[in-house]
Amino acid sequence: MSWAFLRDLLSGVNKYSTGIGRICVAVVFTFRLLVFVAAAENIWKHEHDEFECNIKQPGCENVCFDHFFPVSHIRLWALQLIIVSTPSLLVVFHVAYRENREKHHNQKLYKNPGKTDGGLLCTYLISLILKTGLEIVFLVLFYKLYNGFKVPHLVKCDIKPCPNTVDCYISKPTEKMIFLYFLVATSCLCIVLNLSELSYLIFKYSIKCYLKRHVKKQQ
């Protein structure tokens, strides 16, 4: 899978972000995307082949694996990375709209098309809210799908066509659990950074509006 699109998207958004936003982009790129590509993808690469049950009943291993892993951790993580980064396109599209509008009218309509003020500030705030919400949704989804943030060494399965309760063993459970905790930690960090940036922008805008009103009253 090529991650060039996501990398270019993060690089483009970085130009219009605040200091906190740039830290968040660095966290997503360094501690999530690069870790995913360099290490995590290989750990789950043969998870189905290495999933073993203590019985060779045809179809038993397949249904047990599907029951305990309805969606692969690594595929769900990849989906999370893509979907959580998608709201940033709103900012990129809004800046592109401003630039195209200036070209169409052949005049300078904005002091800086990439400056987060007015409509672009609203778009930026909406993108932060969406990203935070999606991060939380995926954390809940992980928790619900796998009954917590852990990877057991042994699971017991009694689903047909298994003739009775069989023991199934997951490969490299400790290593997978470490990466799962890392995934959860980075998601929580991104949520904190998004909320911090959201609070900072709202506070900054509130102060700006207050000062404008104060100046008008003085005049």
TrEMBL record:
It is found in: Cell junction, Gap junction; Cell membrane. It is a multi-pass membrane protein. Residues 134-201 form the Connexin cysteine-rich domain. One of its GO terms (molecular function) is gap junction channel activity. Keywords: Cell junction, Cell membrane, Gap junction, Membrane, Transmembrane, Transmembrane helix. Its main location: other. Gene3D superfamilies: Gap junction channel protein cysteine-rich domain. It comes from the Eukaryota. Residues 42-75 form the Connexin N-terminal domain. One of its GO terms (cellular component) is connexin complex. GO terms for biological process: cell-cell signaling. Belongs to the connexin family. One gap junction consists of a cluster of closely packed pairs of transmembrane channels, the connexons, through which materials of low MW diffuse from one cell to a neighboring cell. This is Gap junction protein. It comes from Cnemophilus loriae (Loria's bird-of-paradise). The lineage of its organism: Eukaryota, Metazoa, Chordata, Craniata, Vertebrata. The gene is Gjb7.
